[in-house]
User: Which sequence fits this backbone?
């Protein structure tokens, strides 16, 4: 059995939605892999999983945001400092803090809806004590919109996506890994 067929078959399992939930939660705290990477296989394998996958990604991301906000608020000196030094840099943190202070709610929506280092801004929000209900409300809106758009596109073009994944599995897999590595490298340059 080809690897891509094996993965697509298992992406249709009852555990696929839970994998999306936990991987998206991890992405909101420390991973640098776009959540859409985890959302794609279950939806491509089974169009009916689009809504549960979008919900799982949204809830996982919001719970991850709560954890990261709490780390920024209460554990910044220990865990927050380690996260910044391991996955980012103090300079990036200061730049994020300045952006957050200057643009506030706008930067929350931009970070929630785009691949901007969301976890870094969440740490900053907790660290500076930004209103948690306001932060999490805007986070929930931005992240849910992002995942809803991705889920809808995958649902709408599932047949075409399935053909593309089957035909170009290895180039897509290598491109995803390279994109993650380049993203981490670029973050290191900021």
Assistant:
């Amino acid at each position: 059995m080809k690897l891509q067929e094996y993965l697509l078959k298992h992406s249709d399992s009852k555990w696929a939605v839970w994998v999306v939930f936990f991987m998206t939660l991890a992405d909101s705290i420390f991973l640098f892999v776009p959540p859409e990477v985890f959302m794609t296989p279950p939806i491509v394998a089974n169009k009916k999983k689009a809504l549960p996958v979008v919900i799982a990604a949204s809830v996982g991301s919001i719970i991850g945001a709560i954890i990261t906000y709490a780390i920024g608020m209460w554990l910044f000196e220990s865990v927050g400092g380690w996260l910044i030094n391991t996955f980012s840099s103090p300079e990036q943190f200061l730049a994020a803090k300045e952006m957050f202070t200057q643009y506030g709610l706008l930067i929350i929506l931009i970070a929630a809806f785009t691949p901007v280092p969301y976890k870094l801004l969440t740490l900053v929000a907790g660290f500076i004590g930004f209103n948690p209900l306001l932060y999490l409300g805007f986070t929930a809106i931005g992240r849910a919109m992002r995942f809803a758009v991705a889920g809808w596109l995958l649902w709408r073009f599932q047949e075409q996506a399935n053909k593309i994944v089957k035909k170009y599995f290895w180039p897509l897999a290598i491109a995803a890994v390279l994109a993650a590595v380049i993203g981490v490298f670029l973050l290191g340059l900021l």
Residues 81 and 90 are 8 Å apart (CA to CA). The longest helix spans residues 50-74.
